[in-house]
Amino acid sequence: MQHALHHLEHFFQGLINSKDFWQAAIVTTVGATIAAAIGAYVGGRMATGAALKTQEQAAKDQRERDAEADRRSIHGTLRAIAGELRVLQSQALEHQTKPFEDHERARKSSEVQLFPFAITHTNPNRFTIFDSNSDKLGRIQDDHLIEHIVSVYSKAKELVDQANAAARDFERWLLLPEGDPEKAMVRNMLNGLEAGIHEGLPNFRSDVDKLLNEIDEYLKLEKSELR
After folding, report:
1. Which residue, 39, 94, 166, 216, could crosslink 193 as a Cys pair with Cβ 3.0–4.6 Å?
2. What is the pLDDT of residues 41-70, one digit of tens each?
């Protein structure tokens, strides 16, 4: 037994003192360390790459959702503007056009000077949808449509301003006594305002019709893209 132990002790001492043993041990240790480092590096790069791809896809998906939400928002805004224009067309333009035309025909055919057209005050708050959503118009992907919407509403507000100016002057005319030179002056002002409104209404109605058609076409195109 002691002989065997002595033999083993001699073997290990020889192994420890062997230059080849330590070279092999160093090479093995260094190789394992390098392999582990390379594995960690490659694995980290793969994990980082996968994480970046996941983040990029998530960002892309979010952008697509935002774009779709924006298109739906613009779609709703244009529908609301179209509804406001149709109400303006049916309740204001249609009701005003015929009385203007009747009075203009009577004025031209009469041998005596008629009363000025009794224009009543028009509520300027007819453009609440446009006014509250004007900041969204720039997101419409059609420059011509944007310009047409702004143009039509500008003309509508101008007509309302003219009508309200005529309404104030008509009230002023009623209060002035007959024979007052100012009454004749106000009458002439009212005749001029009436003529301007009478000429502007048909063109404006036609412009509104064209704009409504353009909005409908745009909405159809956007609706097909949202599907």
Report:
1. 166
2. 666 667 676 677 777 777 776 776 766 777
What does the alpha-carbon distance between residue 5 and residue 28 come to, in Å, rounded to a whole number? 28
Q: Is residue 70 part of a domain?
A: yes
Count structural domains, the chain: 1
Residue 83 and residue 89: Cα distance in Å, rounded?
A: 10
Please report whether residue 192 resides in a domain.
yes
For residues 159 and 201, the answer to whether their CB atoms sit within 8 Å is yes
- At 162-204, the pLDDT tens digits run 888 888 888 888 898 988 899 889 888 888 887 777 778 888 8
Q: Classify residue 106: in a domain, yes or no.
A: yes
- Using CA atoms in the order 141, 145, 151, 152, what is the torsion angle rounded to 10 degrees? -130
**CA atoms lying within 13 Å on the CB side of residue 42:** 6
Beta-carbon contacts of residue 163 (< 8 Å; ≥ 6 apart):
96, 119, 121, 122, 197
pTM: 0.65
Domain with 100, as residue range(s), is 63-226
How many C-beta neighbours within 10 Å does residue 119 have?
A: 24
What are 76's two structure tokens? Answer: 């709703």
